[in-house]
Amino acid sequence: MGWNPFRRAPLLHVADDRGAGPVVVLIHGIASSSVTFENLVPLLEQGFRCISIDLLGFGGSPVPPDCEYRLEDHEAALARTIRRLRLRGSFTLVGHSMGGLIAARYAARNPGRVSRLMLVSPPIYLDPRELSDDRDRTVQDLYLRAYRFLRENEAFTLRNAGVLRRVLPIPGMVHLDAASWDPFVKSLEHTIESQTTISDIAALRVPVDIVYGTLDQFSSPGGIRIAERMRGVTVTRVRSADHLIGKRLARAVATLLTPTTDSN
């Protein structure tokens, strides 16, 4: 019998809680952990309380063996964890990659809790048949085929994840091994490939920022263009930045989150 979504959701691991001021909750992406925000938190902690949470199945969070890691599973665990934090008032929610999809669902399901939503390098995907541009359809179809290949070829995927771990500039940015294979493959299929991001954004009445690099290996131009036309959505493209939150992307995110003071 599979994991029951109506059963009490697990509490997630709060990996970091530092700084003082308005609250920013940070949610990482698939096959990673809160180390994702290593370049960002130091830029924010002087003016914000930065809370980094590991997603269900990743980092220091629980790995329920019978969980399907659907979008609703991730959101329920995040919601319970945020309730446990007993935060006063609303907060800014920042999600990187798959964390952005979960953050959008949380914001849509918990109106009044999130004052601002920021999606960093979000893989906003749709069914290719929903895209009118031929190139957008081709790109989207290639991503979905590639993800299906990764899910169905464990040895290949784990081997290449090991290579990535050795070459990425931030140690621990990619964490995928035999122990985390189940959360990875199920999250890929049931959250990234089965997302509701566009409809979740449409339900929001708060500002939404989408920030991504022009070299992002996982961005879907068609999905981002659709989101950009929606009410309250602002898109920032960061030149020469890729999917990860390196120093260039971290500076862009921090600049957007930090209010400027008019010297006049």
Automatic annotation (TrEMBL):
InterPro entries to which the protein is assigned, alphabetical: AB_hydrolase_1 (IPR000073), AB_hydrolase_fold (IPR029058), AB_hydrolase_sf (IPR050266)
Spans through the membrane: none
Q: Which Pfam family is one of those matched by this entry?
A: Abhydrolase_1
Molecular function terms from GO: hydrolase activity
Keywords attached to this entry: Hydrolase
Q: Where do the AB hydrolase-1 domain residues begin and end? A: 22-155
Look up the domain of life of the source: Bacteria
Protein name, entry field: Alpha/beta hydrolase
Q: Which organism is it from?
A: Protaetiibacter mangrovi
- What taxonomic ancestry is recorded? Bacteria, Bacillati, Actinomycetota, Actinomycetes, Micrococcales
